[in-house]
Design the sequence.
């Protein structure tokens, strides 16, 4: 049975993998806000228990077993968030922290009961898909905007940004779910993207564009 | 809640028949229209605690005095940025008789979003459909009459940069001010439950809410509360009846989010965008697009390799332009001054004061001081403003933001900081004020350090007018090179020292265009006029003071305590060091005073400097002047944006850096045998 700390690692690696990022010790230590030395230590430990593999080219990744475990934690986290917003009526920008604590103590049985009680929600309050009991994610073909090439189009499915004001600002520019965007230009060397929304073009930094997920990519 | 309008605005409104507030998205030609309407006599007002400026002016139209308020360019009336907050504050707290919104005809949907939001506030709107010519070029024609009918507000087509449509605009403004177009409360979102919820909430507000909410109608209030507007929700908590309204609002929010499956703010934004889009498509007709002339240039300017080359070429061009055009003008003006004005002024002073102390002092100010201002200020500063105006109006600065985003991440910043940093080569003061567009304090601090180390127009004038003119262009280039190295090193250092991470770039980008001459020159002239009005009195006062100190011999007593630093470390005359301290007032004043001093002693215009100081001394002098402490104006705005403590720290850092670099340069050049 993995410890709480180990579960946090698996969860974070899984989320970074979904962003199609190459995961090194540095990236992981940034995301977890833990020193690189401790990260190296823990990755080694997780490797020994068969949860994590580390390869030259692809960096740190999850084994099938580790992936299952991680999806299980993510599922519990997102179910908790749903419960907090829908039933307890807590504000949606506060529930993430709370859920971080609950996810580790929830048994699989309680998680199943919670899912049934909430009548099988598909996404968390922030729009991220909730994995099923078997660790399957409901077909989510959304990819970060950064994975698109120039002249490709897609429809925004979610924006993983927590700041309410910033989301409002993006919305005023027309950048919100269900809006079609077209990538006009991608600067090389991890530079910004030029994105067309309606009649206007915007330069989006790679960090901002990475938080915007689109589906139905065409062109 | 009593609205508190800015005193400047209050005063000007009392003196005029009616007032017009100008609003619009960034870069739609709002300032061009403002300049066109206002002419001379613009004053600038700040809300306490913000750096966002509101320009205020009056104009006379057929004998009617009109007040004009130029608000910052915004996309929406929320409270995300300081710009938005300020615009909103002025609109609510100092209600204008006409709210003139400037629309970009070539990008109508996004521009109408703001107009729809203004309508929700039920303000007296007049719309100017600007850039009609550019839209035509892109194959778009907009039916103004139809647009006016659909929106319920008057719409006037304009081409601001040629002054077209200004007269009809003022005529219509007078009609709006006279109440011809009553702010209509037409329901905008007639479909779905939003309209019902607004009506229901408005009823609750009418029944329960006490207190004055900027004179907004209950419908407008209902709209804001339904949208979870932070400012108004906070007001509800303070006032009587707020709790009941809040309870009603909660039910409305839940009903809407249940119906649409998304939160109410997003839904309302979406409805507004939808409506803006549908209105726009009803009034716009498209012809097959003609070519986009600068598309390939944009590509080249933003691609890493060619983009860097273009940037380097551009900086080289600015340098060469300043070097040749500036030096040419400086030499001519110097010649004119020494052959025509100087003898006239000298003999006039002699006629009235003979050889008295007053006469000698006056000669410092009126002859040598003015000569220095003319031969440094006009040739270098004016030339520079012309180049800067061209860059701004061409849209190149956007390409620069795109190009430099990745590099600026190394300094803990993003592409959005490129525009203020680039504009800081004009003047640090607006550059620091432009930092209000950055999101975090960390970014503002980091960008400030880069900005204050960037040689501004005045420092460039000193480098060019001394080192460039008297020693040679290679040495002048050397100073810029040393500055660049120091900027990079300081940026990297402070990004490591200050904890935190940088946020990201979100910037609207528009196509490159050939700037129109008239507004560009108008802008240059406005800036230069400000420069003259502020700088000339300081130069006069400074040179009179210096002259008085010199003629009485007190100057030697003053400079002796500083002599070890100036003479020992930097190897420059202590008097030259004294002018460096005067330069806190304005950077180019350092050279102007030094030239004044040299000319008063050796009497041969700007070239007397070479009799007074050696090449090495001139180089070190210009180098130190370039690096240390920005002028007092920069310090003041920096304190405004970052707080006094951080501003003083940054200034102290530049001072230490300047002394270190200056001393190193002095000993190194001495060792290399430079005189």
Sequence:
């Amino acid at each position: 049975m993995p410890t709480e700390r180990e579960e946090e690692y698996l969860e974070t690696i899984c989320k970074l993998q979904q962003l199609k990022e190459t995961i090194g010790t540095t990236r992981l230590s940034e995301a977890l806000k833990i020193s690189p030395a401790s990260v190296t230590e823990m990755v080694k430990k997780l490797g020994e228990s068969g949860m994590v593999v580390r390869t030259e080219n692809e960096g740190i990744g999850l084994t099938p077993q580790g992936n299952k475990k991680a999806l299980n934690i993510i599922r519990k986290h997102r179910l908790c968030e749903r419960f907090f917003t829908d039933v307890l009526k807590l504000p949606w920008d506060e529930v993430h922290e709370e859920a971080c604590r609950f996810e580790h103590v929830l048994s699989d049985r309680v998680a199943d009961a919670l899912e049934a009680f909430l009548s099988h929600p598909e996404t968390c309050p922030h729009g991220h898909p909730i994995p099923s009991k078997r660790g399957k994610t409901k077909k989510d073909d959304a990819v970060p905007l950064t994975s698109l090439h120039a002249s490709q189009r897609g429809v925004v499915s979610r924006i993983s940004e927590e700041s309410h004001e910033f989301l409002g600002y993006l919305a005023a520019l027309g950048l919100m779910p269900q809006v079609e965007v077209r990538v006009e230009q991608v600067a090389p060397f991890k530079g910004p993207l030029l994105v067309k929304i309606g009649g206007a073009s915007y330069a989006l930094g790679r960090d901002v564009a990475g938080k915007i997920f689109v589906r139905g990519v065409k062109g | 809640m009593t609205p508190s309008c800015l005193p400047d605005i209050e005063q000007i409104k009392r003196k005029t028949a009616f007032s017009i507030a100008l609003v619009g998205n960034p870069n739609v030609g709002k300032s061009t229209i403002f300049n066109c309407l206002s002419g001379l006599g613009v004053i600038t007002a700040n809300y306490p605690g913000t750096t966002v400026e509101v320009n205020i002016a009056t104009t006379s139209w057929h004998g009617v005095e009109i007040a004009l308020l130029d608000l910052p360019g915004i996309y929406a009336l929320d409270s995300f940025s300081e710009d938005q907050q300020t615009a909103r504050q002025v609109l609510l707290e100092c209600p204008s008789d006409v709210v003139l919104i400037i629309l970009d005809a070539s990008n109508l949907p996004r521009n109408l979003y703001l107009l729809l939001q203004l309508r929700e506030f039920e303000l007296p709107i007049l719309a100017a459909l600007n850039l009609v010519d550019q839209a035509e070029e892109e194959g778009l024609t907009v039916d103004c009459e139809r647009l006016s009918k659909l929106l319920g507000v008057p719409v006037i087509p304009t081409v601001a940069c040629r002054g077209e449509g200004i007269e009809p605009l003022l005529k219509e403004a007078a009609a709006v001010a006279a109440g011809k177009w009553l702010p209509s409360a037409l329901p905008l979102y007639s479909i779905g439950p939003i309209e019902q919820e607004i009506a229901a909430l408005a009823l609750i507000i009418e029944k329960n809410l006490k207190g004055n909410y900027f004179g907004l109608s209950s419908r407008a209030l209902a709209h804001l509360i339904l949208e979870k507007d932070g400012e108004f929700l906070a007001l509800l908590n303070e006032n009587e009846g707020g709790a009941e309204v809040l309870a009603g609002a909660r039910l409305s929010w839940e009903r809407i989010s249940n119906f649409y499956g998304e939160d109410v703010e997003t839904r309302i934004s979406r409805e507004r965008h939808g409506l803006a889009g549908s209105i726009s498509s009803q009034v716009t007709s498209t012809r097959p697009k003609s070519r986009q002339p600068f598309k390939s240039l944009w590509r080249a300017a933003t691609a890493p390799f060619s983009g860097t080359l273009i940037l380097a070429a551009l900086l080289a061009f600015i340098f060469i332009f300043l070097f040749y055009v500036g030096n040419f003008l400086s030499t001519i003006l110097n010649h004119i001054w020494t052959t025509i004005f100087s003898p006239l002024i000298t003999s006039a002073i002699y006629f009235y004061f003979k050889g008295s102390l007053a006469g000698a002092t006056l000669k410092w100010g009126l002859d040598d001081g003015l000569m220095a201002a003319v031969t440094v200020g006009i040739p270098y500063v004016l030339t520079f403003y012309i180049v800067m105006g061209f860059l701004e109006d061409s849209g190149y600065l956007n390409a620069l933001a795109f190009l430099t985003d990745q590099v600026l991440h190394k300094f803990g910043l993003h592409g959005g900081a490129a525009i203020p940093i680039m504009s800081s080569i004009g003047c640090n003061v607006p550059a620091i004020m432009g930092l209000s567009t950055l999101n975090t304090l960390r970014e503002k601090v980091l960008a400030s350090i880069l900005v204050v180390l960037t040689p501004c127009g005045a420092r460039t004038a000193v480098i060019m007018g001394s080192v460039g003119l008297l020693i040679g262009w290679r040495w002048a280039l050397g100073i810029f090179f040393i500055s660049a190295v120091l900027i990079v090193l300081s940026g990297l250092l402070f990004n490591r020292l200050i904890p935190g991470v940088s946020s990201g770039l979100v910037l609207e980008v528009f196509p490159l265009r050939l700037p129109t001459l008239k507004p560009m020159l108008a802008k240059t002239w406005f800036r230069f006029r400000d420069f003259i009005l502020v700088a000339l009195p300081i130069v006069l006062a400074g040179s009179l003071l210096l002259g008085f100190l010199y003629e009485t011999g007190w100057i030697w007593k003053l400079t002796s305590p500083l002599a070890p630093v100036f003479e020992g470390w930097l190897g420059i005359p202590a008097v030259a060091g004294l002018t460096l301290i005067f330069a806190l007032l304005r950077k180019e004043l350092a050279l102007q005073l030094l030239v004044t001093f040299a000319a008063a002693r050796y009497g041969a215009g700007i070239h007397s400097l070479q009799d007074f100081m050696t090449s090495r001394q001139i180089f070190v002098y210009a180098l130190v002047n370039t690096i240390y402490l920005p002028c007092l104006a920069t310090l003041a705005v920096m304190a405004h944006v970052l707080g006094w403590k951080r501003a003083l720290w940054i200034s102290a850092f530049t001072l230490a850096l300047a002394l270190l670099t200056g001393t190193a340069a002095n000993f190194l050049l001495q060792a290399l045998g430079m005189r």
Notes: Chain A has a mean pLDDT of 84. The interface with chain B takes residues 92, 165-174, 176-179, 185, 187-192, 194, 198-209 of chain A (CB under 8 Å).
